[in-house]
Automatic annotation (TrEMBL):
PANTHER family: PROTEIN ELC, TUMOR SUSCEPTIBILITY GENE 101 PROTEIN-RELATED
Origin species: Capsella rubella
Biological classification of the source: Eukaryota, Viridiplantae, Streptophyta, Embryophyta, Tracheophyta
Name of the molecule in the record: UEV domain-containing protein
Pfam family, one: Vps23_core
GO CC term, one of those recorded: ESCRT I complex
Family: Belongs to the ubiquitin-conjugating enzyme family. UEV subfamily.
SB domain sequence ranges: 322-390
Ranges where the record places region Disordered: 156-207
Residue span, UEV domain: 18-162
Length: 398
């Protein structure tokens, strides 16, 4: 075991040296966790100066021995208005701080561990809900010692051994010696945790009936104290159960709240899209209504004109503005007519009405004619473009 330092500066130097040491005697902690381990120990020593950091050899249950850091010393325990010091050893195992430390009650020679105890085994190993629910990185040594102090205050883990009392003085002549000789059972009976930190106290028993009266008072006090501690433990257990149930309900409500919030956002987004679509449709409706009114007006204006017309030639109903436009109209009409004819031939061939050889012959002839019409239409469009460019240039120069 490496001795512990005595002042804060030496403590910092000791921890820095122990955590940076290399070789067989180095501590087996992760490099990424060493700074946090150092801070946990410094905060612990700052809050509880009665604890001291040390390095010592720890023996695992499988026989492995490893060099680990520990916090050795005493922690305060308030009990019946008096503060006692409980000796403990806090071992920082290899997986610390991701996993909880190992805590042992370390009784002195004049102490024994209470049996049974809710949190301390006969070997001194401490088990607390805080250790079982250890959460990295929020859990730390300062809170652990605070929980230890509170748990020990509810149920002290140590008893003080009864110190052997000197033999009573010889009785005067004429008195029965058995009146002043305490029994062997009275001398060896251990008493509960004393009103002083670590050991004996109280006056010596001189008379047997006074001694029995004190034992009765102590037994009644122990029974009362145990009953109170048991009740406190039951209330604490109920509170923990209720808290866990409420936390579970809160988690469910928070989850439901997130779902409802997400649905509210989806509904709001959908409503906004519907409002925008409604506005767009209203605008389109206005345009359509306006166009409908225009068409109705045109029909009313031109409806009377058709009465004076006897025979209307469809081909001469609409006259083209120039020769190129007329030629383009003819080419486009021929192209579309041939396209419809080829479609009808294809439909007849699929239905089995037209033989295959006749279908191919007609399609070949029509396709050749359609090609010439399309080429002519392309040349007409090019000529129209040149004419338009020339007209624009003439207007610009004029």
């Amino acid at each position: 075991m490496v001795p512990s330092p005595t002042n804060p500066q030496q403590i910092q130097q000791f921890l820095s040296s122990a955590l940076s040491q290399r070789g067989p005697s180095s501590v087996p902690y992760e490099e990424s966790a060493k700074w946090l381990i150092r801070q946990h120990l410094l905060n612990l020593i700052s809050s509880y100066p009665s604890l001291e950091p040390k390095t010592a050899s720890f023996m695992h249950n499988d026989g492995r021995s490893v060099n680990l850091l520990q916090a050795d010393g005493t922690i305060p325990m308030p009990f019946h208005g008096v503060t006692y010091n409980i000796p403990v050893i806090i071992w920082l195992l290899e997986s610390y701080p991701r996993h909880p430390p190992c805590v042992y009650v370390n009784p002195t020679a004049d102490m024994i561990i209470k049996r049974p105890h809710a949190h301390v085994t006969p070997s001194g190993l401490v088990s607390l809900p805080y250790l079982q629910n250890w959460i990295h990185p929020s859990s730390n040594l300062v809170d652990l010692v605070s929980e230890l102090s509170a748990a020990f205050a509810r149920d002290p883990p140590l008893y003080s051994r009864r110190r052997p009392q000197p033999p009573p003085p010889s009785p005067p002549t004429g008195y029965d010696a058995s009146l002043t000789r305490p029994s062997s059972a009275d001398q060896s009976l251990p008493r509960p945790f004393p009103p002083s930190p670590y050991g004996g106290g109280g006056g010596r028993v001189q008379v047997q009936h006074v001694h029995h009266q004190q034992q009765s008072d102590v037994a009644a006090e122990v029974y009362k104290r145990n009953a109170i501690n048991k009740m406190v433990e039951m209330v604490h257990s109920d509170l923990v159960s209720m808290r866990r149930a409420r936390e579970a309900e809160a988690e469910e409500l928070l989850s439901l709240q997130s779902v409802l919030k997400r649905r509210d956002e989806e509904i709001s987004r959908g409503l906004k899209e519907m409002v925008e679509e409604k506005e767009t449709l209203e605008q389109q409706l206005q345009v359509i209504s306006m166009n409908t009114d225009i068409l109705d007006s045109w029909v009313r204006e031109n409806q009377g004109k058709t009465k004076n017309l006897v025979d209307i030639d469809v081909d001469t109903a609409f006259e083209c503005g120039d020769t190129l436009s007329k030629q383009k109209l003819v080419c486009t009409a021929s192209d579309l007519a041939i396209e419809d004819t080829i479609y009808s031939l294809d439909k007849s061939f699929q239905d089995g009405v037209l033989p295959f050889d006749q279908y191919l012959r007609n399609v070949r002839l029509l396709s050749r004619e359609q090609f010439f019409h399309r080429v002519t239409g392309s040349k007409v469009r090019a000529a129209q473009m040149e004419a338009q460019v020339a007209a624009i240039a003439g207007r610009l120069h004029s």
